[in-house]
Amino acid sequence: MQVDPVLWCINNHIKLLGGIEFSLKGCEYMAEIMRDSARHMAVIKGTQARITTAFMLREIHALIHRQRPQGSLYYFPTERDVERFSKTRQGPLIADNPIIKRHLRSTNSVSVKKVDKSFLCLLGGKATSVIQGKKDSGAVRTTSGDCVIRDERDLFDDYMADMINDRLLNSTLKLEVDLGSPTIPDMGIDRVFGKSDQKYRMIKCSACNTYTSIALDFPNSIKYKKSGSGRSIPYYACIKCGKEISPCNGEYVAKFPSKYNPKYPNEGISGYHVSHFITPNCNLGLVMSEWEEAQIDSSKLGRFYNTYLGFAYIPVEDRLRIQEVYDCCGNDVMKTMSTKETAMGADIMKTNRVVIAEKTGKDKAKIINMTRVSGFDALYDMVKRFNVKSAVICIRPYEESFRKFQAKCADINVTVYGSQYPGRDNANAFMKVDEKSGVYTVNRTEAMDKSQAWIRSGKLEIPRMCDEVKVFAKECCNTAKVLETNEDTGDRTYRYRPIGDKQEHYRHCINYLQLAIGVLTHNQGMSAVGYNHGESSYDPLEWDL
């Protein structure tokens, strides 16, 4: 069947990198993926799973058989990735396979191949400009198609990834594929896969008929047996009877079948998980040696989860968990006013996030209200109703309105500081204070570290559970600390990246609230760390957390 990409590859003896002929032997998992007719697919994978090759062949087959009249767009994170793939993978694939080569027409471009009457374009998805605060790229704007593939999804900026979908607006097919190895939870491919039906490879035991997922059931899915020489050899084992099982006997089973029905391919996302364990060249002995090393050195766990298991991973210390925020809940409902002096932290946008707290002891505070309001007038009303004496508010994007609010509060003896994060954290100083303009410039990473430590310390109390507390908790956890490497300089820096739905506004409110309580402590003449008999020199975040 020429319309079947798998049979087309087999019947035409398609040669892969290194002269290996395409075969499903050892790659049985690829058949269902290549044949899937879903409008939107997501494949989360370990490394070297041959998934990029599978989708490249699928698109070439579809173009040859005129299933993509407007062409296919294959996106990589950067133009450099495009050039590398074109030279090392796509070029040899074309040169080694006459059945492909004879359908190609010259375009004088390494990134654009004309396949009969359609085009296969390799494009970079990195933003090349910023227009009115929004990222943009000519590569994402200028080309239309019937199918877009985003390879190594975690390396794409989310705004650019969404913008790529605009290339499908004139298509009747509107096909999307997201694939890649995961990094941290609830971001990139892990987030897309989480919205899918989440199909995992399940292997049937020939002895007891029990199904085992090597990845989901790891490490219980690996056992050891003695070789003839007495050495312990790892093998894939049934989680029920312990007998040896083979990945070639697997089938995909959806964890959440209600999220995608193959009878309605235009609805939902069809998701596949591919661990390194089920790939043909997995050396289980070497993999388990790395697992043992990761047990000793926890810094290697992330790589193991991402590379071999195909799971997102982040150390506990680098991201708040929802339950950790809920553990801060007290017994009191939110107050609607206060006679005590309070501090305010606010993140300003179209709908502001606001938290108001009372200082309850050394390094301790109790949030008495958290809410969402619109405009500075509503913010000013809260300042008066809750007896706010110090406030720290992000100065942008409405700096002019902030200045008016700051002056208005000064008239009623309320200290208001603006706060901003520099474009790049200063390694020598956590914070710079401009007393004249009333602005703090704060290292974002360190501020996030301190607010995370504060929440975990048990020294911050929040109101009892309610709908707004649930929103607050979610937004406090929608950021994670990751190690980023500068492609040009090689410099490595820890930064907090927004994850999930990217709404992290209440977390910034806590950053600002810590500063505001420091100001309140200073103005009250209390024993704050760094307070020196009324002198103005102090660090509002120099708390013993």
Write the topology of this structure.
Layout: H1 5-11, H2 29-35, E1 40-45, H3 51-64, E2 72-76, H4 79-95, H5 98-101, E3 104-105, E4 112-115, E5 118-124, E6 129-131, E7 134-136, H6 138-141, E8 147-151, H7 158-164, E9 175-180, H8 188-194, E10 199-204, E11 211-212, E12 222-226, E13 232-236, E14 250-254, E15 270-274, H9 284-296, H10 301-309, H11 322-326, E16 342-347, E17 352-361, E18 364-373, H12 375-385, E19 388-394, H13 399-410, E20 415-420, E21 431-434, E22 439-442, H14 444-457, E23 460-461, H15 467-476, E24 479-485, E25 492-498, H16 505-524
Keywords:
24% strand, eight-stranded mixed beta sheet, 545 residues, 30% helix, alpha/beta, 16 helices, 25 strands
Task: Provide a compact summary of the structure.
The chain is of the alpha/beta class and 545 residues long. The protein is 30% helix and 24% strand.
Largest sheet: 8 strands, mixed
Low-pLDDT stretches: 127-136, 526-541
**Proportion of beta-strand residues:** 15-25%
Return the average pLDDT rounded to an integer.
Answer: 88
Principal-axis shape: globular
Rounded to the nearest angstrom, the radius of gyration is 28 Å
What does this structure look like?
It is a single chain. The chain has 545 residues and is α/β, with parallel strands linked by helices. The chain is built from 16 helices and 25 strands. The chain starts with a helix and ends in a 21-residue tail after the last helix.
